[in-house]
Amino acid sequence: MTESITKEKALEILKTVMDPELHKDLVSLNMIQDLQVNDGKVQFTIELTTPACPLKNKIEGDARKAFEGVPGVKEVEIKMSAKVTQSQQMSEQIDLNIKNIVAVASGKGGVGKSTVAVNLAIALAQTGAKVGIMDADIYGPNVPTMMGVSELPQPRNKKLVPAENYQVKIISIGFLVKMGQPLIWRGPLLHSTIRQFLVDVDWGDLDYLVVDLPPGTGDVQLSLAQHIPVTCGVMVTTPQKVSLEDASRGIEMFNKLNIPIAGVVENMGPMILPDGSKLDVFGEGGGEAMANVYGLPFIGRIPLDPEIRKNGDIGQPIIIAEPQSKPAMVFNELACEVAAFISQMNHKE
Ligand SMILES: Nc1ncnc2c1ncn2[C@@H]1O[C@H](COP(=O)(O)OP(=O)(O)OP(=O)(O)O)[C@@H](O)[C@H]1O
């Protein structure tokens, strides 16, 4: 049987190719975009940190060489492009007093993205930071329910005033639509609403704004993330294969937008039963393995726990309702990881 080349194998190979200036591999540096492997043909784009990269030819040559003699590789097609930092461009366009925007995303619905966003926001606020959460999930804006708020205060000075609970300021698309009433969000309406959520909301000064993106990695999510000056992303997945495949598309979405990823979170891992044994529902470890393949930090494994659902439903996130529980501790560590990632990023700039 002849060996065939897979996307995972191609990524492993690209991980051996170093950027000669940054002394890190191209995958960890998020320089590999649009990787495709079909019938022995490997295609990808190398995105350079600066358009006038003097080492462009060397990087391309090294990447090509890495595939030489690899079984199953028939052809290698490399495109070179240059990075434009979306968030930098946009911050200049909108005058914001928000220091850092963290976008929480998932490849598909129901994996616990909002749960992670809400608990992350509260954990960050509990460290003393000024925090807001923007619920941009047009398909299921459930942040208000999870945060225990149902309406916005009266506007002030022609600006929307966010609701507030657990020291977190809250804005949600859910405040604009009646419960259970579907609303078709066409692109321009969605974008103007999101922009309004940034510009026309009296956020005050914020250290962190956590954004709960709609699930998925299609055009809606892509253009939404493009309309917000995102500092970094957090990818939420469950451990099972289908969810992981969707999550890897999510990682590629962030890469396409040049948004650095603070890490991957695996939610709904094995449930810990009262006798200490584990009940495996969706599996375990898939999120961490995926993070490793993409050279990303793995920043949290949250077990499946009925208390998370119960407390979410009554507007008391687990980090508030049961601060000593295992999931609450994981959320605290997750918040530390995200904050550390951002401070390292800001340090580099
Ligand atoms: N680790 C967990 N253990 C038990 N229940 C959980 C866990 N994580 C999330 N849930 C529950 O699963 C449901 C879906 O979670 P959540 O709304 O956070 O997911 P989502 O990915 O944001 O979904 P959507 O696609 O609707 O945006 C909620 O009822 C939530 O309380």
TrEMBL record:
Keywords: ATP-binding, Hydrolase, Iron, Iron-sulfur, Metal-binding, Nucleotide-binding. It comes from the Bacteria. One of its GO terms (biological process) is iron-sulfur cluster assembly. GO terms for molecular function: 4 iron, 4 sulfur cluster binding; ATP binding; ATP hydrolysis activity; ATP-dependent FeS chaperone activity; metal ion binding. SUPFAM superfamilies: Fe-S cluster assembly (FSCA) domain-like (SSF117916), P-loop containing nucleoside triphosphate hydrolases (SSF52540). ATP binds at G107, K108, G109, G110, V111, G112, K113, S114. The keyword Iron-sulfur applies. Residues 7-78 form the MIP18 family-like domain. Homodimer. Belongs to the Mrp/NBP35 ATP-binding proteins family. In the N-terminal section; belongs to the MIP18 family. Binds and transfers iron-sulfur (Fe-S) clusters to target apoproteins. Can hydrolyze ATP. This is Iron-sulfur cluster carrier protein. It comes from Pelolinea submarina.
